[in-house]
Write a structure and sequence with these properties.
The complex is a heterodimer of chains A (about 160) and B (about 30).
Chain A lengths: L1 H40 L3 H30 L3 H5 L7 H28 L7 H32 L2 H5 L1
Helix pairs in contact in A: 1-2, 1-5, 2-4, 4-5
Chain B lengths: L7 H22 L2
Classes of the chains: A mainly alpha (about 160), B mainly alpha (about 30).
Chain lengths: ~160, ~30
């Protein structure tokens, strides 16, 4: 049973997390600067039409998979982590809260606004401009939060090393 | 004041600062 929950669960949590955060970094470090460059000579249509929707699909569902496999890993310790009920769960508790804020940003702020930007739902130009700003800031917030989130995920199994 | 999240470096530095703050809090709580 431990092999499934703690072994396979950890493996899948890391694999889906790599896809989620990898695509988050792709958006922030590659796609956003690339589209800004492309706007100068109107060459960004291919990225917007063919790349962004696919990247967003895997991004948002990888976020769900990461969170669910994380919850599976925590198992009976889920509430101990989220409510800081046990010292052994302090580091993973911080990481879990950061990851939870991030998945909230993905599904509540980034994805609904990206649908307006990409023309999947009707929006006026003013609504699109606002959607672009909200999605951008939510994505940047997630990039910022990913730094401590990864630190505390790494620290979780090694509290003795990280916190002496 | 400019929003640090508007630049990639501002975002990364904000993340590092937040890591340091949260580390100190957890470290203090574990003492």
């Amino acid at each position: 049973m431990d092999f499934i929950q703690l072994g396979i669960g950890r493996w899948l949590h890391i694999a889906s997390g790599v896809m989620w955060i990898g695509l988050l970094y792709y958006f922030n470090f590659v796609q956003v600067p690339a589209l800004a460059e492309a706007a100068k000579d109107n060459t960004g249509a291919g990225i917007t039409k063919h790349v962004a929707p696919r990247a967003l699909f895997w991004f948002r569902w990888a976020a769900v998979a990461t969170w669910l496999f994380g919850a599976m890993l925590l198992g009976a310790g889920f509430f101990k982590a989220f409510f800081f009920m046990d010292r052994a769960f302090y580091a993973i508790g911080v990481g879990a809260w950061l990851g939870t804020i991030m998945i909230f940003n993905v599904w509540v702020l980034i994805w609904p606004n990206q649908k307006k930007i990409l023309g999947m739902v009707q929006a006026t130009d003013a609504e699109k401009a606002r959607a672009r700003r909200v999605a951008f800031l939510a994505s940047r917030t997630n990039t910022m939060l990913s730094i401590p989130m990864l630190f505390f995920m790494a620290a979780a199994g090694h509290q003795g090393i990280f916190f002496g | 004041m400019k929003n640090p999240l508007d630049s990639l470096w501002g975002t990364v530095i904000s993340g590092l600062v937040l890591t340091l703050i949260l580390y100190q809090i957890v470290n203090f709580a574990l003492r």
